[in-house]
Amino acid sequence: MPHIDLKFYPRGLSEEATQKLVDDLSAVLINHLGTTDKAISVMLTEVQPEAWKSDVYDPVIRPALDQMAKKPGYTL
């Protein structure tokens, strides 16, 4: 049951572009994990740049740096 929780700066994506993003992410999981589309859930959260440190970096990224498969190339 893969779940993606993607947080990103607002991009003004259209509904069509958002669906394409979700479809592409799902296709990667299907391809690499051998899962099915019905097993996948995706959460997309737009985070304002000024809230990134308090809402994402400090509570989510910083505590998990040692476990991350890809670490960010920045620190806050």
Assembly level:
single chain
State the fourth-level CATH superfamily: Macrophage Migration Inhibitory Factor
Poorly predicted regions are: none
Taking the sheet with the most strands, its summary is: 2 strands, parallel
- Give the fraction of residues assigned to helices: 40-55%
Q: By helix and strand content, what is the structural category?
A: alpha+beta
Total helical segments: 2
The span between the termini is: 32 Å
Beta strand %:
15-25%
Protein name: Tautomerase PptA
Enzyme class: isomerase
InterPro entries: 4-OT-like_dom (IPR004370), Tautomerase/MIF_sf (IPR014347)
Pfam family, one: Tautomerase
How is the topology of this model organized?
Layout: E1 3-8, H1 15-33, E2 41-46, H2 52-64
Parallel strand pairs: 1-2
Keywords: Isomerase
InterPro entries: 4-OT-like_dom (IPR004370), Tautomerase/MIF_sf (IPR014347)
EC number: 5.3.2.-
